Amino acid sequence: MTLEVKDLHVVVKKTGEEILKGVNLTIPTGQVHAIMGPNGNGKSTLVSTIMGYPAYEATQGTVTFNGESVLDKPVNERAKMGLFLGMQYPSEIPGVKNADFLRAAVNATMPAGKTMPVLQFMQRLNSAMELLQMPDDITDRYLNVGFSGGEKKRNEVLQMLMLQPKLAILDEIDSGLDIDAMRIVAKGINHLRSPQFSALLITHYERLLKYVVPDQIHIMVDGQIVDNGGPELADELEKNGYAKYEHEAKGDQ
Ligand code: ADP
Ligand code: MG
Ligand code: MG
Questions:
Q1: Residue 196, domain CATH
Q2: 128-160 burial by CB neighbour count: b if 16+ within 10 A, else e?
Q3: Contact 139 CB / ligand 1 (< 6 Å)
Q4: Does residue 77 lie within any of the structural domains?
Q5: How many CB atoms lie under 10 A from the CB of residue 246?
Q6: Quick one: which of 73, 148, 200, 221 could link to 77 by a disulfide (CB 3.0–4.6 Å)?
Q7: For position 205, what pLDDT does the model report?
């Protein structure tokens, strides 16, 4: 199931400002890709648009998954297609217990009228929590309320392991994690790697990409993909930064 983004232009609805200016990106089934780039250049806008966040409007271009158009589908349909987004800033939801949220999310991706048997849900939850080394009580707490930054990120990965998406998009899942937590998060992602699973990682740091080695890295600057390469691109960025690309984007190299 290939994700294909073609000439995607996106504006912020509220202001009309164009953030994405013709993004082209293909993630074939079974591959892990990463997008790197300086802050404020449209990475989160891209993934939020793919998942259907209402703040953004695509004005041109297409997004397809397995050949099916994504942009005209409601958010829950996108989840049913097998798309998942682990958010850069997970929301706190007082009054909703983490376990109840997970159960509702899992059931929402099941065919109409079906739910996952409780035993199967509990088994999957227990093994995911063990893999991520999460404390038992974290599922009894309200979703993300009072969670540390690292717990919030780990909880996004827990959701991913519960939902077992076909394409997981993880937006700065490594930000604010210490090295041990990052290794655990990487283990969670690698656990799902298979010829039927693909992932898109947004990250600033080559560190995560040492643990989850991507098939391809894309660089986003000023709302466009300005370069593509293999894992070695991350090392080059670590050394030289983005200066080269920022000049290109401004057309004054
Ligand atoms: P990145 O993830 O690469 O750091 P973002 O996609 O979050 O970048 O933001 C790209 C640009 O779009 C920034 O200038 C940001 O201020 C703007 N932007 C994103 N979302 C909104 C929004 N909901 N309202 C107004 N501006 C936004
Ligand atoms: Mg940012
Ligand atoms: Mg972002």
A1: 3.40.50.300
A2: bbeebebeeebbebbbbeebeebbbbbbbbbbb
A3: no
A4: yes
A5: 17
A6: 73
A7: 86
Q: Which atom of ligand 1 has the smallest separation from the CA of 37?
A: 3
**Which pLDDT does position 104 carry in this prediction?**
94
pLDDT at residue number 248 = 60
Amino acid at 138: I
Q: How many other CB atoms are there within 10 angstroms of residue 194's CB atom?
A: 9
25 Cα: distance to centroid of ligand 3 (angstroms): 17
- Ligand 1 near 44 CB (within 6 A): yes
Residue 54 CB–ligand 1 contact under 6 Å: no
- Ligand 1 atom nearest the C-alpha of 56 is 23
Ligand 3 midpoint to CA 223 (Å) = 12
* 157 within ligand 1 shell (Cβ under 6 A): no
Q: How far apart are CA 102 and CA 237, in angstroms?
A: 37
- Is residue 114 a part of any domain in this protein? no
Asked whether residue 17 is domain-assigned, the answer is yes
Predicted TM-score of the model (pTM): 0.94
Domain tally, the chain: 1
The yes-or-no verdict on residue 70 having pLDDT over 80 is yes
ipTM of the complex: 0.97
Choose one of 8, 9, 11, 12 to mutate for the ligand 1 pocket test, by most ligand atoms within 8 angstroms of C-beta: 12
Ligand 1 atom with least separation from CA of 42: 6
- pLDDT band at residue 63 under the 50/70/90 scheme: very high
Residue 157 maps to a domain:
no
Crossing angle of the two packed helices 179-192 and 118-131, in degrees rounded to 10: 140
Does any ligand 1 atom lie closer than 6 A to the CB of residue 79? no
Per-residue pLDDT tens digits for 163-189? 999 999 999 999 889 999 999 999 999
- Distance CA(227)–CA(35), nearest Å, equals 10
